[in-house]
Amino acid sequence: MRPDKLKIGLVQQSVADNNKAVNWKKSAQAIVELAKQGCECILLQELHSTLYFCQQEDTDAFDLAEPIPGPATDYFGEIAERHNIVLVTSLFEKRGSGLYHNTAVVFDRSKDIAGKYRKMHIPDDPGFYEKFYFTPGDMGFEPIQTSVGKLGVLVCWDQWYPEAARLMAMAGADILFYPTAIGWDKNDTPDEQQRQHDAWHTIQRAHAVANSVPVVVANRTGFEASPVANDPGIQFWGQSFIAGPQGEVLAQAGKEEETTLMVELDMNRTEQVKRIWPYFRDRRIDAYDDLVKRWRD
Known about the structure:
alpha+beta
């Protein structure tokens, strides 16, 4: 049964190299810190095991991928069980020979995998060449049932799509989670950087508002140099946050600090807010057929 009160947290960290053992240990230390404070549900950032390898198209990077179950799920499952927490992790999944996904894996106070989600929307932009590495998810938008409620887990580029958030909420998600790796091109002006961040912040708070559910966003921080000559690399902008069901920001991290966030959510507020702002009642589902089209000509 879903609790009335839930202490929920996230981990914001930098990544210096592809040493998985070091990166896992850093994540584990932050997880334990949160668990000791009574946190019951914790989110890690996107692809937290390694550097963000998608800055270039490199076939050698496929060696970083792992099967599920595998070393990463064994490691984090043991942590979830030992500290009696719900844990949302992210990894580069090797599903089969030549078939890879960007996958979130959830543990529910156990070594056993409670559920997983494969990233559905895959970007292909300068510095973010994800289509080279990841096959789009084929599991749909299904919340994962846990002891703290139904978790609507999405991944990074998914966060820009209201359809994804809506479908998770329609399936009963109590909270939306976005493990993320997003940052600035260092060639962009400060004004452009601020506009990009504000758009990112606004769209996710809007998902909270439109669906009357809390949103938890864990982004990485720090600078990661590009392996491509004369490429400026990515300055990940951090600023992970937790928002309530009316989009109110309950906690937010800084741009460059490795940190944790934790808030106590009143899980009954979602129902209260939905009674006052009945978006689901007033949806004109009889008039939305064209939403499944690519474009209206």
